[in-house]
From TrEMBL:
All copies of domain SET, residue ranges: 19-163
Record CDD domains: SET_SMYD
The protein's name: SET domain-containing protein
Record field: transmembrane: none
Pfam families, sorted: SET
Lineage start: Eukaryota, Fungi, Dikarya, Ascomycota, Pezizomycotina
PROSITE patterns noted in UniProt: SET (PS50280)
Species assigned in the record: Phialocephala subalpina
Length: 331
């Protein structure tokens, strides 16, 4: 997602095109790239279906893990995308570039559930409009499908909406500025229009399915599918181990309290042991993971151990808080 993000001019990567659209440099100086119609496009035409370049769960660990699993060639493609820190202070920001790219370009795994995100390389080049010329959805296979929402002339820029556009122009602009760092200049925002549910067009999905181009961009190879499945299985197994630790430590808490033992002993013995065990499991489960990146995530788990000491007088709460947050770090 490239909208209004100032960039130093670099040589263009190989630009994508299909029968309907092409990615190319944007004519406006403050927008790097855009997607433009190559031909006259009728409403309800499926103009792009693309498989994810990268898919992850909600945590930064999962995003780093997905990136590390990419081939060197696909890492180069991923790194071509624009990344911007949500804090808006690029000079002091310490967020890694991989996570900046995720923050700027990710689409949800579905429009209805917050269960992770995908990076689609081609679709990331669509710019935003609150009255877009195309709409997008995520298919049951996890592909993004982009469909013309109105008649689009050859040479026109094709836009999508990054947000639910219902509401006032100020509300939309504030949300876009906070999430993506740009002031929306679309016709609806410039005219200060309030968008209502009734004013939104609904594209006829059945018609779109009939006109669908059979070619899907970015399909993974068999090797890549096996790697994705292996990574997901390893992550699920790791979380299952953590849940076993959670259950075991909860039982220990009950035993400590029933015997009148000091919570301090629980803190020093059990919680620190979990940190070491999770660290070992992470290293064993993902041996090819970039060591420096892995250490960043391990340090977060260690920090949880330090934070949980604040709750040590309520050990049952401390254990629940601790493991909930470990799962958040991993998933």
């Amino acid at each position: 997602m490239q909208q209004n993000m100032p960039q130093s001019k670099k040589s263009d990567p190989d630009m994508f095109s299909n029968a309907f659209l092409e990615v190319k440099s944007h004519p406006l100086p403050n927008i790097r790239y855009g997607i433009f119609a190559r031909t006259h496009i009728q409403p309800a035409t499926t103009i792009l279906e693309e498989a994810p370049l990268c898919r992850a769960r909600k945590s930064e660990f999962s995003k780093d893990l997905a990136y590390e699993a990419l081939s060197e060639g696909k890492k180069i493609i991923f790194n071509r995308l624009q990344g911007q820190c949500p804090c808006g202070n690029e000079e002091t920001c310490k967020m890694p570039s991989v996570i900046k790219i995720w923050c700027t370009n990710s689409f949800g795994r579905s429009k209805s559930a917050n269960d992770g995100s995908n990076i689609f390389y081609i679709a990331s080049h669509f710019n935003h409009s609150c009255v877009p010329s195309a709409v997008w959805d995520i298919t049951s296979e996890g592909h993004i499908q982009v469909v013309a929402d109105k008649e689009i002339k050859a040479g026109e820029e094709i836009t999508i909406s990054y947000i639910d556009t219902v509401g006032s122009a100020r509300k939309r602009r504030d949300f876009l500025a906070e999430a993506w760092g740009f002031m929306c200049r679309c016709e609806a925002c410039e005219a200060r229009l309030t968008i209502t549910p009734k004013s939104l067009r609904k594209w006829p999905k059945s018609d779109a399915e009939e006109t669908m181009d059979s070619h899907i961009e970015g399909l993974p190879t068999l090797e890549e599918l096996i790697e994705i499945e292996s990574r997901e299985t390893a992550l699920d197994a790791l979380v299952d181990y953590v849940k076993v630790f959670h259950h075991h430590l909860t039982s220990q808490v009950e035993t400590f309290l029933s015997q009148g033992k000091s919570p301090k002993k629980l803190r020093e013995a059990a919680l620190l042991a979990v940190v070491w065990e999770v660290e070992n499991l992470l290293r064993e489960a993902f041996p090819g993971f970039n060591k420096a990146v892995l250490e960043v995530h391990l340090s977060r788990i260690t920090e949880l151990h330090l934070w949980v000491l604040r709750f040590v007088q309520d050990p049952a709460f401390a254990v629940d808080w601790y493991f909930r947050n470990i799962e958040m770090v991993l998933l």
